[in-house]
Amino acid sequence: MTVNVPRDLFRGPDAEVVPEKTLPFRRMMRNRYPWLSENAMDVIMNRARQEMLRILDEESGGRALSARLANSGDTVGAIRHLQEHLAEDPDDADSWYALGKLLCQCGRTAEGYQAFARGRKLF
Q1: pLDDT tens-digit map of 88-118
Q2: For residue 5, which phi and psi values (nearest 5 degrees)?
Q3: DSSP code string of the chain
Q4: CA-to-CA distance for 47 and 105, rounded, in angstroms?
């Protein structure tokens, strides 16, 4: 079964579920498909959130996942993720700026300034 979940059920870089929009969606789904249990709806919502996280990361050139990693305290993972993205897409100026910011935050200022300079050249 394929379910088209509205994008506005989620907000922010962490794809937080918006409760006031989710409840009407769950009700509508249960009315259309009365055999769906609450557990099945939970599974649908969890999968939809995971897909939204993937889409956000794809749309942002890796910056969304990198921001989530950095916010959770995994700065090394965030830097690695951006570096991997930039290896595939070295012309992404916004990702160079994000990398520069992360490098500077963790004390690697010389590398951070190089990343900023690389991003600036792309504009």
Answers
A1: 999 999 999 999 999 999 999 999 999 999 9
A2: -95, 125
A3: ------GGGEETTTTEE-HHHHHHHHHHHHHH-TT--HHHHHHHHHHHHHHHHHHHHHHTTTHHHHHHHHHTT-HHHHHHHHHHHHHH-TT-HHHHHHHHHHHHHTT-HHHHHHHHHHHHHH-
A4: 33
Q: What is the DSSP string of 22-53?
A: HHHHHHHHHHH-TT--HHHHHHHHHHHHHHHH
**Given the structure tokens 């099945």, which residue do they identify?**
40
Residue 3 has pLDDT above 90, yes or no: no
List of domains in the chain:
7-59 (no CATH), 63-122 (1.25.40.10)
What is the model's pLDDT at position 13? 80
d(CA 43, CA 104): 40
pLDDT tens digits along 14-39: 899 999 999 999 999 999 999 999 99
Prediction pTM value? 0.75
Which residue bears the tokens 């259309």? 32
